[in-house]
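[job 4417] fold queue: 2 targets
>>> target A
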Amino acid sequence: MTAWTAPQAKPINRREMLAQVCKTLLAYPLLNLALIGASCSGSKNGNSTQPPPVSDDQFLDQMEQAALLFFWEQASPTTGQVKDRAFATGINDTRTVSSIAATGFGLTALCIAAQRGYMPGSQIQARVLATLNFVWNQLPQQNGFFYHFVDMNTGQRAFNSEVSSIDTSILLCGVLTCRKYFQDSQIQSLATQIYQRVNWPWMLNGGAAFSMGWTPESGFLPARWDTYSELMMIYLLAIGSPTFPVPASSWNAFARPSITFQGYTYISGNDPLFTHQYSHAWFDFRNKQDAYANYFNNSITATQAHKAFCLSLAGQFRDYQNNLWGISASDSQNGYVVWGGPPAMGPIDGSIVPCAAGGSIAFVPADGIAVLRNIENAYPNAWRRYSFVDAFNPLTGWYDADALGIDLGIATLMAENYRTAFVWNTFMKNPEPQAAMRAVGFK
């Protein structure tokens, strides 16, 4: 089989990109794009250059396929490690820093690509196997935990980053998704070994709540995962571990404060919107409740409150409106910032962060899709080779030059969960997450 190679990237808008892709379909017959059909057919006489409107499902399919290109092209084919960020055009990006969280999202995205036939399954499976081989045999680790940022080619620590409990957990969620999706004994064995190597009690560092990380220079970070956020995956993976578990009572180690905004009351640690998304990308909290909450419904309420918060700023930032909202930790004109609300946090300046709505599609599908379709239609410079740029500001005309792996990842996984529940259904076939959720009292 001829190796699949993506078409050469060009800095073009989305409709031009679709036309380019359609021309290459004959060269890549196994690239089963949903762009075939309405988006490529034009009018009956073939003279139209404007594709007719696509359905919401077709739009999401196009978004997922474009994001897949990031996880395929912006990763080392040898190590499988995915870049933290890359130029949104896909052109001439020489950066080599990988994020292990982006790799975790990427492994899951590859499962989606294989399931949907976006690429030849044999090539996807080979990339997954190479990734897991490298993670198990060569990627530096401490008690099974990995550095937040590494060089994508060598795996060596980058930026003096920490051994990260949350980013390791995101990687493990991708690893375990692959274990259940691919019926390959090597992939399954490697995934199991990677997960079972993690010494979860070590990361507790003698406390009840997990440390956020460790460095060889200073030891454990003083900050702990002790307040509700994206942390649920850490605790559930640890409680479900068959080799180095923590007690189920650890589930009670983090606080669950509530906030109220414009009549919306929900559990939140006053964090950016992504904290209500990440654990939900893999763990299926739908129609389940523990002693504290229905966390899926909680994320719905948090998203509704966030939309209301953005609309409350319309007097100051006139771009915020019913189909254009969403602020989450992202790039800005002044670098990477943690911003959002309620309550207001960070130097909010009218920027729009597409993954805020994208990562919320499973919670508020109509609202989330409306935002993304509006961005794609009204702000064509916000769509590049890998779907949406990380952020843009309609008021100043600034468009981020980069796409970020974790932000493309959360939008892709949640779009697929909304469409088919594929990630939820695949990940939750693992016995460890099931056992952990039972142990902490989900019913």
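>>> target B
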Amino acid sequence: MLDPIIEFFESVFRAIGRGFGYVIAWICWPFVAAGRWYAHRGWIIKSVVGVLLLALVGFYGYFMVQTQLWQNFDPDYAEAYSLASRGSSEADATAVADNEGNPADSCARSVIVDATSDLIDFNVNQNAWISSMLLYKLGLFGLDWDKTPFFDNKASFQRGVNQAIRRTTVELVDSIGRVRGTSQIDENLQSARGNMQFDEYAWYFGLSPFGPKTPTPSFHRAAIRDLQRFNERLVACQAILDTRADNLVQFVDRVANDIGATSAILRERSENFDAGWFDPRADDRFWFAYGQLYGYYGILKAVGTDFDTIITQRGIGTLFATLDEQFRAALRIQPLIISNGNEAGLIMPSHLATMGFYVLRVRSNLVEIRSVLDR
């Protein structure tokens, strides 16, 4: 009586096996055909093709290694920019105030500028800048890597860090690196801002416009030099770091808005594409948000050092300490595989919803800091 049932399942499994066999044969056919062609060629053609194949394998091997190797990645890196770790001499230098209660000009380095410069160095010197690598631009058989589950996590993370850097360079030029709105824009900061606004995907050659180009990492390295020159001039009292309360309010407000835009992106993807482990865009959304928080963690830690006088006067040290805790809580989320499942799902978690929750926690704390400063 069981024989018909057994035969039925055997036929089903045979059909599945044949289906897999056809798929594998279809995938392997171009390689088999190329192998037959190669076997009937002369030794000169074989040598040339062999060298090209070895170069291609090495090229792809380098690309795969660089996308998986996150050199000097450290969620605790921001501690280097805290007031305690910078030493009492710099704290004293930034704690001087004028008769109106505003910090007076000092000849100490800007920790914000140091943190921004270090993040750029982390992106393009300590690690390869993935987004402008040729194989990343070519994609998987022409399909954008961001639309696949493969080899795009580091690129998205780097672009998230870069988003925080871009916003910071804009604020350094517009407010923090000048006295109110009436003084001249600092040339080094202006140059750094321009270099950081450059196309993130530029390689040595492009199609739009057609012709040779300067790759993205070269512009970012130039921004490092500009920021370092500014700090050298700041130490020599030849530049300005205007650490007034209204500048801190504006910076915190702009960061909160920037993070808020990212939370909207996470929400949109989480609500409309809940495909669990099979959403190929969930990973780049997650790692972009993670990278943005990673960048802002160090920068806002540096803000706490450069604006220490204002933070102490307004009594918001506890709020900044809470902000640090929320950044660290968000950066502890490092899942091996990003899942964009239904928020009420049992098996597949919703990592985008989880990251969105932590992003909003950081933003709400920034809004609270801004409201206290506005009083």
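[job 4417] complete. Note on B: The mean pLDDT is 86.
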